[in-house]
Amino acid sequence: MLKILADENIPFAYHAFSSFGKVKLASGRSINKEALEDIDILIVRSVTNVNKNLLDGNNIKFVGTATIGSDHIDKEYLSQNNIHFADAKGCNAYSVTEYVFASIIKYCVKNNLKLNELSLGIVGFGNIGSKVYKIANQLGMNIKVSDPPLAEQGYDFSFSSLDEVLSSDIITLHVPLTTSGNNPTYYLIGEKELNKIKENTLLINSSRGPVVNNESLLIYLGNKKLDIVLDVWENEPEINKELVNKVFLGTPHIAGYSLEGKVNGTKMIYKELSKFLQSAEDKEIILPPVNDNNFTYDEKKSLEENLDFIFNKIIPLNQDYEKLLRISEMDRIESVLFFDELRKSYPERREFNNYIVKTNNEVIKKKLSSFRFNIIT
To answer: How far is CA 133 from CA 172, 288, 309, in A?
Structure first.
């Protein structure tokens, strides 16, 4: 019988993968060489670094990561050792997109700004960036997009340079973490780039922590005013406590943590493992219904105020930030454990398509529909 080790934070992991063999669940950061001694299949999330140090001498045949990013995986080593690899690109794209707009709306309400009067710069036009673009377009925002790899491939889109994107009122980053090639994203936003961003801009990073140089950002925030939203941090889970206190909003790497996003990751790896094993298994995962999912659009309030009210009921970013702020009062070991605990105990969040909004306003209907809300009159 196949033996499978899976990160305990992968939802329905035991239910799904027990179709193929004996499943053992473990904390992602506790997965080490010894834990893999008799394991055939390894399924992880982003906190487990999968490389020669972990796998050398073991009999792993398949590695899956139930995440969109794969910078924690040494894919070259896997290929050289005939270990099949699968990721879950796009699994939580809607979840991250919703997080981004919840952040943007909070910025708008705080500063009494209108969405259709703001420019939005998107760095990265993949699964998430393209969804952010589509919604922002419906909201009437002025959008610029930078994606050098796609531009070099001749992708049919009018791309802007990074410098042009950095002139926007709002900048949101949606790139993988890469350290080589023509367009590495490690420290894509460093001292030089930060100095090109005008004051009072909103900068959102929900991609990978080292895409932004956190030390440079901290120095920059000591001299100029920026509204920063960080869901990802350098050196997670040992993050910069001083920076936590200087951002507009900070969260513990949970932008993609909707239940749908996480379950999509499970489903995608399940399908890839089923193909690898040439299995006909097809286990269904049914999500529970959402209660208290009705909202009424208040015509007396602005679009931004309405969205802030609705979003806050679904993604309570202020509460998430208040929890993370407690990390500044802890010593190093406590803070590291607390960061991971925040992720592990993150409350169940459902995506916008589970919610209903009542309105008779035809213009508003189109804007709300772009978020996948169900509209009734």
So the answer is: 11, 30, 22
Question: Can 236 be counted among the known catalytic residues?
Answer: yes
Active-site residue identified among 45, 72, 174, 253: 253
Please, which residues have CB within 8 angstroms of residue 85's CB and are 6 or more apart in sequence? 62, 63, 64, 70, 73, 75, 78, 79
Query: Which residue in the list 208, 343, 349, 350 is annotated as catalytic?
Result: 208
The number of beta carbons lying within 10 Å of the beta carbon of residue 38 is 11
Q: Of the listed 98, 193, 234, 236, which one is catalytic?
A: 236
pLDDT at res. 69:
86
Is residue 215 annotated as part of the catalytic site, yes or no? no
Classify 92 in phi/psi space as left (phi over 0), alpha (psi -120 to 50) or beta.
alpha
Tokens 């993949």, located at residue: 126
Tens-digit pLDDT profile for residues 309-332: 999 999 999 999 999 999 999 999
Q: Residue 45 catalytic?
A: no
Please give the Cα distance from 341 to 258 (Å, whole number): 17
DSSP string, 336-348: HHHHHHHHHTPPP
User: How much is the pTM?
Assistant: 0.94
